[in-house]
Amino acid sequence: MAILIDTDILIDYLRDIEAAVSFVERISGEAHILAINMAELYQGVRQGTEQVKLAKTLSSMTCLPITSETAELAGLYSRDFRPSHGCGLADCLVAATAHLHGLTLATLNSKHFPMLQDVIVPYQKN
Length: 126
Description:
By secondary structure, the protein is α/β, with parallel strands linked by helices. The chain has a single domain (3-120), classed as 5'-nuclease (Rossmann fold, 3-Layer(aba) Sandwich), CATH 3.40.50.1010. 56% of the residues lie in helices and 12% in strands. It has a five-stranded parallel β-sheet. α1 crosses α2 (18-27) and α5 packs across α6.
């Protein structure tokens, strides 16, 4: 199964949360990330070991661009779901990418993705 990983899981991975590490390592050959999520991760990464770990992790994933088709669908998702579900534009871009590429979305916040049928929450935070 090809999976698009949301930022929240990768943040936990960088923090060595056991459930996140197990999940990411299990699916690393089938993992995708959206360019905007990559930017979010680099925005908050600590220099040194954490940045090296992030770069190594992301190098094993396919980074998907934001295309005009993705932007259009994300805008429509935002229009339709932001008022009722609090979906931000980044979430809508993730959802549109997952939909257009036929990917299952892995996230810890499934309520922001009512527009998708293929969403998994691989673990719960304590």
